[in-house]
């Protein structure tokens, strides 16, 4: 099997990453009954002998027992607090100190500080740390980046690292989970940071999963209301079991579970496996239009362990329900160019096809790709659940989401407010206009798809066979 390296950048990226690794270990512990280091574990973990310094990798061979697991991860933050929490917490043994790049002063909510100041200062250290992680892989398939869009380190240094990966490893897929701030975010400069970061995402990422804080908060509130405190421990919105859990831990759990489901086919067997590189191939129809809507179902189960038979059908309805989306958008109001349904658990392919036939009449696909469905089926369900469904789609409904980001940017930009904080840290003011033009281009791509969604595909001339 192939391997992936996770790069978690900034406070948000490292908090989501901590949830991801905790839950990944629980999944593998659930299904790895004999304690062997197999290809499934090898996707995200190394098996090492800690009697040596640095720890030595043990070969992957049939029947090899787990000695000590190390995550294939790089932890980066310009404030060392969260990284230190990870290294001193329950997951301390999963990471080595040489996997971290930290500073103490932070980026001050400024994209330019993260990108120019810390990017250039730590370029060599980041490059060497990533190179070590890459060299420890037998067949590296993808980088998975986790960072926010509103803060300085996540948006600035996060996209600097993305550009660095694009330059040094151009053939390795780059997936980004980007967490967007809510409208009432307490970072006043977050609209600048978001638009400047989006410019980099359009240029250097292969796929981006935009996640909005407001959408995550709404999901948690709805679940609290509907379950009345009867939430199962292993549901997607349950945070850590520790008493020190923070309010955003439950929101981060949703993102972590999304990543686990996205990579399930890379880690476990199934009748319809979908590797992460297939997501790009099947869901990105045009260059630059690689932002995907995401939904996860079920988000919760009640105390009853038995899932009603209708639950499977309900999952497919949930996938296109706005209250299940990780971004504030309405899938049924947009135009889909392609859609992936990744199912986990004991589900028949015929059930998937039946549900696709049932829901597609309520969706709007472009005429030139009416059968644009990619399906995956992984045999292993999430821990504590019978089935799960992850829906990833290229949908023009994100037009409204990104238009809101643009509007918030222009409110500051037209008044020339706060611009000097960016130009004094090595950023040319032309970057503002270039980033805005890049966002406008993305919005025009969505508008073009919506305008031509009902047109017939262009007829190409027949190929002459010599």
Automatic annotation (TrEMBL):
<dbReference type="GO" id="GO:0005525">
    <property type="term" value="F:GTP binding"/>
</dbReference>
<dbReference type="InterPro" id="IPR023123">
    <property type="entry name" value="Tubulin_C"/>
</dbReference>
<feature type="domain" description="Tubulin/FtsZ 2-layer sandwich">
    <location>
        <begin position="272"/>
        <end position="407"/>
    </location>
</feature>
<feature type="domain" description="Tubulin/FtsZ GTPase">
    <location>
        <begin position="56"/>
        <end position="270"/>
    </location>
</feature>
<dbReference type="InterPro" id="IPR000217">
    <property type="entry name" value="Tubulin"/>
</dbReference>
<dbReference type="InterPro" id="IPR036525">
    <property type="entry name" value="Tubulin/FtsZ_GTPase_sf"/>
</dbReference>
<dbReference type="GO" id="GO:0005874">
    <property type="term" value="C:microtubule"/>
</dbReference>
<dbReference type="InterPro" id="IPR008280">
    <property type="entry name" value="Tub_FtsZ_C"/>
</dbReference>
<dbReference type="InterPro" id="IPR003008">
    <property type="entry name" value="Tubulin_FtsZ_GTPase"/>
</dbReference>
<protein>
    <submittedName>
        <fullName>Tubulin</fullName>
    </submittedName>
</protein>
<comment type="similarity">
    <text>Belongs to the tubulin family.</text>
</comment>
<dbReference type="InterPro" id="IPR004057">
    <property type="entry name" value="Epsilon_tubulin"/>
</dbReference>
<dbReference type="InterPro" id="IPR018316">
    <property type="entry name" value="Tubulin/FtsZ_2-layer-sand-dom"/>
</dbReference>
<keyword id="KW-0547">Nucleotide-binding</keyword>
<dbReference type="Pfam" id="PF03953">
    <property type="entry name" value="Tubulin_C"/>
</dbReference>
<keyword id="KW-0493">Microtubule</keyword>
<dbReference type="Pfam" id="PF00091">
    <property type="entry name" value="Tubulin"/>
</dbReference>
<keyword id="KW-0342">GTP-binding</keyword>
<dbReference type="GO" id="GO:0007017">
    <property type="term" value="P:microtubule-based process"/>
</dbReference>
<dbReference type="InterPro" id="IPR017975">
    <property type="entry name" value="Tubulin_CS"/>
</dbReference>
